[in-house]
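ok so I'm stuck.
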Amino acid sequence: MKSKRDQIDIIVDMLEVIDEGMGSKSGIMKNANLSNTITEKYINILKNKGLIDYVDGRYVVTEKGKNILQRLRKLRELEVEIAELFNSVSKELS
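replied:
not stuck anymore, here's the structure
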């Protein structure tokens, strides 16, 4: 298991949290397990890429963001499937 999240992991975690309705900055920080500095950095990235908007005092995932999130969820599923296949093959070969 990875010990440190990369940029994609953080983006997926943030989009998931916001999509689940926890769109306040403190909600994002708490539920995505991020520091204030990292949260600010990635909020700016997500806003600049058009993946989130700030509406009525909360962040919301845009349609573009929902599309990206759907594809990122699929990638995570495939990563798990690949790891399971790799472990299965490794066991058979050892």
